[in-house]
Design brief:
The complex is a heterodimer of chains A (145) and B (407). Chain A has 145 residues and is of the alpha+beta class. In chain A, 47% of the residues lie in helices and 12% in strands. In chain B, helix 14 (319-333) runs antiparallel to helix 17 (383-397). Chain B is globular, with a radius of gyration of 22 Å. Classes of the chains: A alpha+beta (145), B alpha/beta (407). The interface between A and B is large, with 45 and 58 residues. Bound molecules: flavin mononucleotide (FMN), iron/sulfur cluster (SF4) and FE2/S2 (inorganic) cluster.
């Protein structure tokens, strides 16, 4: 299998190249593009990013594994990121987690502070924050998806 | 309590995130000053205002700006730090989602002062929703011809707390792992691909328009002598009305909590409070009495102001659980470069976990103090020393609770 950036992404890459003093800066932006394009970051995509950024593929791989939001494997389940850090814990994230664990068709990730401590407990699904959670609210949100 | 609206003035105005509404309420008015002042003059005003960095450290902004070379030999850059990952902190997102044009205005002024033609906003990956609002505002600013002198590009992080540290942030922008760099011996700018670069927090830059427009004295009219101005303080945890409310430095902490936060949830009593994100030492309810919200007061109370994001804990809070929770965070987020941090964050998490399960011994407590000592002052960045502060403050202040469960 080979990987090719879409036309739109190639245009975006060209636009961004003019914005930075060196092509290596396109590492994170192109990792994001690849992940949105395929749902995860494949080894083939890493080769393509290596071409864009002039960074060796091995190094791109090392970088990608450093950041928790990059997925190097495909997943068919809905990813639910639940904040388990202090403010959320004080406001009942343990119960939300327990409630979510009873569901089968989702993958739960216990993540660190999502920057929504004032509206805790919080979870994030597909880049969207769901705040002030209760078990009933969680059920309604999952049903909507 | 004096109402302060230097940064939060447009927060409650509907659609203030759009250029039209923002302009109706005075956005970009400060730019007229660019015709009057040369770059050095703007830096001078910022210096006189004694504006302090609002990302956690409180470093005087003007002094950092002065380090930027203005000789045009190489390009200069501005990087705005919107990584906002310190647990308990959620203020920068208010600015970028409610009044993004204020940040853009601040960026234009700052770029002029440091002669930068390009600015980047490094935003944490989890803020995609707010990033879109900010990008819309930037697009509007481009269409309105406001960004002829400097480009603004959003650079998205991908979930690594340590990338909030300014040198790790720049490594990350250079396409590498977010590993903090060794600190230079002398004062110098940051470097982005070898070019002089200024890194400031979102709120710091969003304060610049007020100061340029109204003058240094207008800013210093708020706050204390050493901590002038205001901060977007925040509250979370066991509080009736958690949220972000701007207040001047020197405000009484408990009055702030009662006035804006409506007191402790469920009519409970305050037990402990972490003043500015989990990296600051914990305070007991007694220590909070009479304490004011400024850098100096919190330092003399043995903690620090940090980001001003207070985490409030009521009388029923289990301090062991709270400490364990914070240690898990550190354990997961250590970048792994320094042995004391990589190993110390893991071991302290493990040992406190063991104590929490009822399998701890008295020696474990001594071991934790030993680990705290090993992690203090022997690492590349202050991440590990923060773990020490947290460990020592929790165990020494709530010693009874820890001793009650160890054998
Ligand atoms: C571990 C660590 C994490 C940090 N995280 C942030 C952050 O999320 N946002 C931020 O603005 N500053 C953060 N800082 C502070 C930055 O290194 C830097 O001092 C700051 O962005 C400078 O801007 P200021 O002077 O305007 O505050 C962090 C520092 C450390 C040591
Ligand atoms: S102290 Fe910890 S986070 Fe900081 S550089 Fe060393 S290992 Fe990385
Ligand atoms: S602690 Fe959960 S969002 Fe900050």
């Amino acid at each position: 299998m080979s990987f090719k950036f879409t036309e739109d992404n190639l245009l975006e890459i060209e636009r961004l190249k003019k914005r930075y003093p060196a092509p290596q800066a396109l590492c994170l932006p192109s990792l994001w593009m690849a992940q949105y394009q395929e749902g995860y970051i494949s080894l083939e995509a890493i080769d393509a990013i290596s071409q864009v950024t002039t960074i060796p593929a091995m190094e791109i791989y090392r970088v990608a594994t450093f950041y928790t939001m990059f997925h190097l494997e495909k997943s068919d389940k809905i990813e639910v990121d639940v904040c388990k850090t202090l403010s959320c814990k004080l406001c009942g994230s343990d119960e939300i987690l327990k409630h979510l664990e009873s569901k089968s068709d989702i993958k739960i990730n216990h993540v660190e502070c999502l920057g929504s401590c004032g509206t805790a407990p919080v979870m994030q699904i597909n880049d969207k924050n769901y705040e002030n959670l209760t078990n009933t609210k969680v059920d309604a949100i999952l049903k909507e998806l | 309590m004096r109402e302060c609206q230097i940064v939060s003035r447009k927060f409650h105005i509907e659609n203030a995130c759009t250029l039209r509404v923002a302009k109706e309420h005075g956005a970009y008015n400060s730019l007229v000053k660019l015709k009057e002042y040369d770059p050095q003059h703007i830096t001078q005003i910022i210096k006189e205002s004694m504006l302090r960095g609002k990302g956690g450290g409180g470093a005087p902004a003007g002094m950092k700006w002065e380090l930027m070379p203005l000789d045009d030999k190489k390009p200069n850059f501005l990087v705005v730090n919107c990584d906002e990952s310190e647990p308990g902190t959620f203020k920068d997102r208010q600015i970028i989602s409610k009044d993004p044009h204020l940040l853009i205005e601040g960026i234009i002024l700052t770029c002029y002062a440091i002669k930068a033609k390009a600015a980047y906003i490094y935003i944490r990956g989890e803020y995609k929703e707010y990033q879109e609002i900010l990008q819309n505002a930037i697009d509007e600013a481009y269409s309105a011809g406001l960004l002829k002198e400097c480009d603004i590009t959003i650079h998205r992080g991908a979930g690594a707390y340590i990338c909030g540290e300014k040198s790790a942030l720049l490594e990350s922008m250079e396409g590498k792992r977010g590993h903090p760099r060794l600190k230079p011996k002398q004062k110098e700018p940051e470097w982005f691909f070898g070019n002089a670069t200024l890194v400031n927090n979102v709120e710091t830059i969003a304060t610049v328009p007020f100061i340029v427009k109204n003058g240094a004295d207008a800013y210093r009219a708020y706050g204390t002598e050493k901590s002038p101005g205001t901060l977007l303080f925040a509250m979370s945890g066991h509080i009736n009305r958690p949220g972000v409310y701007e207040a001047e430095f020197g405000t009484n902490m408990l009055e702030y909590i009662n006035h804006y936060g409506g007191g402790i949830k469920n009519g409970k009593k305050l037990k402990a409070l972490i003043p500015g994100g989990v990296s600051c030492g914990v305070l007991t309810a007694k220590e909070c009495e009479g304490l004011t919200l400024d850098y100096e007061a919190l330092r003399s109370a043995g903690s620090s102001l940090g980001t001003g994001g207070m985490i409030v804990m009521d009388e029923d809070t289990n301090m062991l659980e709270a400490l364990k929770n914070i240690l898990e965070f550190y354990h997961e987020e250590s970048c792994g470069q320094c042995t004391p941090c990589r190993e110390g964050s893991g071991w302290s998490d493990k040992i406190v976990g063991r104590i929490l399960e009822g399998n701890g011994t008295k020696e474990d407590l001594d071991k934790l103090f030993e680990l705290a000592d090993i992690m203090n002052g022997k690492t590349i960045c202050v991440f590990a020393p923060s773990i020490s502060t947290v460990l020592v403050s929790f165990i020494s202040k709530f010693r009874d609770e820890f001793e009650a469960v160890v054998s």
